[in-house]
Amino acid sequence: MNIYKFKGILIGLFLSFALTSCSNDDKVSSIKPSTQLIEMEAEGGATAVSFNSANWYIAAVLNHNGDVNIQGETYSQDGELTKEHSSLSLEGQGKIEALWNNKGFIITKDSPSSLKIWLKENSTGEEFGFTVIIKSGEEVKEIEVFQKKSQGYEFDSITYSLKEEDGDSIFVKKGTTVYNFNIPEPQEFSFSPYGGIDVHNQSTFHSNEEDAFVWLKKDSIMLEVPTAINNGEIYRNGEKSLYSDYSTKKPHGFEAMKTVTVPAGESAFFTEQEWRKRQVSYKLRLINNRTREKKIIGGKWTEVTPTGEYTVQWKKK
To answer: Keyword annotations for this protein (predicted)?
Structure first.
């Protein structure tokens, strides 16, 4: 065979193979996301992903922990809830979301050729990750999402203020103990006016923010709290309470015994106790250990405590 003819055949075969390879590459890569790897800091945020075509859909979202389908809610483009507590997928435009108290995400397909992946702050103390499965016909692409664990926050300061619903109020409630007698002649009886079940000075921080207490849970931060409200002013004298979503209970200071004269025959009495409720608004300022940026948490602080005033109420037999 002529050597030049043989070379021509080889060149022809090579070009044919190259064209076939290019055709196969184009077929395999018809889904072309602008990124297949998203790495996010613990503070969260949003990342946009664009595609070279509109012929694709979200087939599933898998948790890195066990490669199991993540369940959540699916919404249409106009915000209507279409699926609830089900495995996440999305064919048209709209959004899917899985939100927990301490982590979560929202994936929005806001146009036929793009989507946005938003992560809330990760306060779990562990890394969080998932895989978004994209399909077009038989083709599959995966977008891996990794979120770092938080480096935490440190306490900076707390401030108190009075809003319309805040203030200092007095209320009366019945004591938990009823004293019953059946005696032949009058006698004196000593009792504790504020005795009974769950009678304490109770101080509580409340917040509607999901991560309000997680950042300082391990630090047992004692914060200065108000001791009086007078003419719209909040006063403090160094008294402190644990910053927690659980009530802090302390002795109320009215343990002294009192004496009454019990009449002869059948009788019974209970106490009506006077209590005070104070409520103020607070803003807690934390500093992010990684970014040094501040984080503000808002809520209410309440204190419920006896005033020491009471009356004895005799029951008729």
So the answer is: Signal
Are 254 and 231 part of one and the same domain?
A: yes
Question: 292 and 206 in one domain?
Answer: yes
Long-range (24+ apart) CB contacts under 8 A made by 142-145 are 142/36, 143/33, 143/35, 143/36, 143/37, 143/38, 143/49, 143/117, 144/36, 144/37, 144/38, 145/38, 145/40, 145/105, 145/117, 145/119
Name residue, tokens 């507590």: 85
Mean pLDDT of 38-53: 96
Q: Which two tokens stand for residue 306?
A: 């006896």
Of 290, 289, 283, 48, nearest to 158 by C-alpha is: 283
**DSSP per-residue string spanning 215-275:** TTTTTT-EEE---EEETTEEE--S-EEE-SSS-EEE--S----EEEEEPSEEEEEEEEEEE
Task: Give phi and psi for 46, each to the nearest 5.
Answer: -125, 145
Residue-wise pLDDT tens digits, 150-192: 999 999 999 999 999 999 999 999 988 899 999 999 999 999 8
Residue 192 CB neighbour total at 10 angstroms: 15
- Which one-letter DSSP state was computed for residue 70? P
- Which residue segment(s) compose the domain that 81 sits in? 31-147
For residue 148, report the phi and psi dihedrals to the nearest 5 degrees.
Answer: -75, 160
pTM to 2 decimal places:
0.76
280 belongs to a structural domain: yes
Go through the chain and tell me how many residues it has. 317
